[in-house]
């Protein structure tokens, strides 16, 4: 798979797809067999876009270069879906050292990131070079006033005409820590020499910030394991092997001096996103396990796995997964939990501005439930982003029938990039497509079965009595459901066009 040069330079991420209603982040680059006991996201990648490689820590996702989306209701404080934990990193060229802290740095950072990664290569009909020439002298006149500088930078971003691309202030940028899978608020990426470095400014007051980590610091080892020859994703997988560890130690090399930095991992503000129970036992022996997923944060995979294990132990043999009112979360988390239901399947495709199609696959880890147990997924008009990735993955692989109302239709991927002044840039860098090649953006996931879904009520209360699991099983049978051949979105579109023409 070939990618344009602008996408092959530096591992950048943000743990997602769209996080809360509107932003998505992820952190999963394409690296040869990124797998571990705790990592269920697999991609075979060699030349992976750097926006997608930048860090597998968050998620949001956008995880993947960081990805993050704002909620559909445009709540400025809503940051739901990205790829990975730590906020993304600014482009390598503009994040190498603190020597670039002179006035105009933020303008340069933001302009460069947009120039390299924005999905619309027409830049909203703007001549992007002239845009820089327009704002550079304006920023030079207010070089000592950060507020005025950011006002101009924000104005520049708005010219893209993309409702999801925007500037995050310092507080909003810090708020995405709940999608941090590493827990210390830092993003790692490879430099031009393939050495792992700190790729963007640590989140203010995070463990990495308090430990004194700086952009450009070389991380030569993590928990005693050398980083030489390893990708950022390999490292995230290593950390994931011990998800309950309270600390992490990074051996940092700066100015020829190496020092170990032991940092406390912090996940205190991350809420348990799972609610579950046996909702009913029917006369025919069907015992329904009901699971509500509130959001796709850093805990969702572990908590869902625990919930399904308990429901299985109680005898559940049919499942309802409720994604209503779930506006998104970390992209990689959506792919990871899909692995609890199906093995070695394409969960989604990510398509970047160059047209490159990157498949994300579930792994061959042990299934959390019996492969024959029927699964119904409930969605509504607020189910967005990472929710749609998860629902689309199970649906197109004939693993779950969709019930309820059409989902929101948030199929764009945003990366979250940390800026040197502590703020952040949310930028649309790609879109995701279901395994069957169906676009999500502006379309959503269409239910197989309408009706049978009660009004959404906060908490665990849910009436599953109207779910016809015989109908669900029928919808998933080979007679009614065909697993796609996974040749990619472009091939699927061509096949559909040919079929329509004939």
In short:
Residues 1-25 form the signal peptide. This protein is an alpha+beta fold and 502 residues long.
Question: Describe it for me?
Answer:
- The structure is a single chain.
- This protein is α+β, with helices and mostly antiparallel strands and 502 residues long.
- It has a domain at 183-264: PDZ domain (Pdz3 Domain), CATH 2.30.42.
- The protein has 12 helices and 23 strands.
- It has helices spanning 50-53, 105-117, 128-141, 146-158, 170-174, 207-210, 232-240, 300-313, 331-338, 386-396, 469-475, 489-501, and strands spanning 14-18, 24-26, 41-42, 58-59, 69-70, 79-81, 83-84, 166-168, 188-190, 196-198, 218-222, 225-226, 247-254, 257-264, 274-281, 287-293, 318-322, 346-352, 357-362, 375-379, 401-404, 412-418, 424-433.
- Strands 3, 8, 18, 19, 22 and 23 form a 6-stranded antiparallel beta sheet that branches. Strands 15-16-17-20-21 form a 5-stranded mixed beta sheet, with helices on both faces. A 4-stranded antiparallel beta sheet has the order 12-11-13-14, with no helix packed on it.
- The longest helix has 14 residues, at 128-141.
- The radius of gyration is 22 Å and the shape is globular.
- It comes from Seminavis robusta.
- Residues 1-25 form the signal peptide.
- Pfam families: PDZ_6 (PF17820), Peptidase_S41 (PF03572), Tricorn_C1 (PF14684).
- This is CtpA-like serine protease.
- Keywords: Hydrolase, Protease, Serine protease, Signal.
């Amino acid at each position: 798979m070939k990618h344009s040069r602008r996408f092959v330079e530096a591992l950048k991420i943000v743990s997602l797809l769209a996080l809360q209603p509107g932003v998505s982040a992820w952190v999963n680059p394409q690296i040869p067999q990124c797998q571990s006991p705790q990592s269920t996201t697999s991609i075979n990648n060699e030349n992976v876009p750097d926006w997608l490689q930048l860090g597998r820590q968050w998620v949001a996702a956008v995880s993947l270069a960081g990805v993050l989306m704002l909620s559909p209701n445009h709540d400025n404080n809503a940051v739901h879906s990205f790829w990975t934990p730590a906020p993304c990193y600014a482009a390598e060229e503009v994040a190498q050292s603190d020597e670039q802290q002179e006035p105009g740095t933020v303008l340069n950072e933001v302009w460069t990131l947009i120039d390299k990664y924005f999905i619309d290569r027409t830049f909203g009909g703007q001549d992007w070079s002239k845009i820089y020439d327009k704002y550079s002298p304006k920023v030079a006149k207010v070089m000592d006033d950060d507020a005025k500088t950011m006002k101009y930078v924000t104005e520049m971003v708005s010219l893209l005409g993309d409702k999801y691309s925007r500037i995050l202030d310092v507080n909003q940028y810090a708020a995405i820590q709940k999608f941090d899978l590493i827990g210390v608020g830092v993003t790692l990426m490879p430099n031009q020499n393939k050495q792992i470095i700190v790729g963007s400014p640590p989140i203010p007051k995070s463990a990495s910030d308090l430990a004194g980590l700086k952009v450009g610091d070389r991380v030569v080892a993590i928990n005693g394991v050398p980083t030489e020859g390893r990708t950022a994703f390999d490292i995230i997988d290593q950390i994931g092997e011990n998800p309950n560890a309270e600390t992490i130690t990074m051996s940092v090399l700066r100015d020829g001096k190496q020092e170990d930095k032991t940092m406390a991992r912090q996940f205190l503000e991350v809420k348990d996103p799972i609610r579950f129970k046996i909702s009913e036992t029917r006369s025919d022996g069907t015992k329904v396990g009901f699971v509500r997923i509130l959001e796709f944060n850093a805990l969702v995979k572990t908590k869902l796995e625990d919930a399904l294990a308990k429901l299985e132990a109680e005898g559940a043999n049919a499942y309802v997964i409720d994604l209503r009112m779930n506006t998104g979360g970390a992209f990689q988390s959506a792919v990871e939990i899909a692995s609890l239901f199906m093995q070695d399947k394409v969960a989604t495709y990510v398509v970047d501005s160059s047209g490159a199609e990157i498949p994300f696959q579930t792994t061959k880890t042990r299934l959390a439930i019996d492969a024959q147990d029927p699964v119904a997924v409930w969605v509504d008009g607020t189910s967005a982003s990472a929710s749609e990735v998860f629902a689309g993955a199970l649906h197109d692989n004939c693993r779950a029938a969709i019930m309820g109302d059409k989902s929101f239709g948030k199929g764009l991927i945003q990366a979250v990039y940390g800026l040197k002044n502590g703020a952040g840039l949310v930028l649309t860098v790609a879109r995701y497509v279901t395994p069957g090649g169906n676009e999500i953006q502006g379309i959503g996931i269409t239910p197989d079965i309408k009706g049978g879904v009660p009004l959404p009520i906060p908490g665990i209360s849910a009436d599953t009595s109207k779910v016809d699991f015989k109908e669900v099983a029928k919808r998933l049978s080979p007679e009614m459901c065909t697993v796609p051949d996974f040749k990619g979105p472009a091939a699927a579109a061509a096949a559909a066009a040919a079929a329509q023409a004939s």
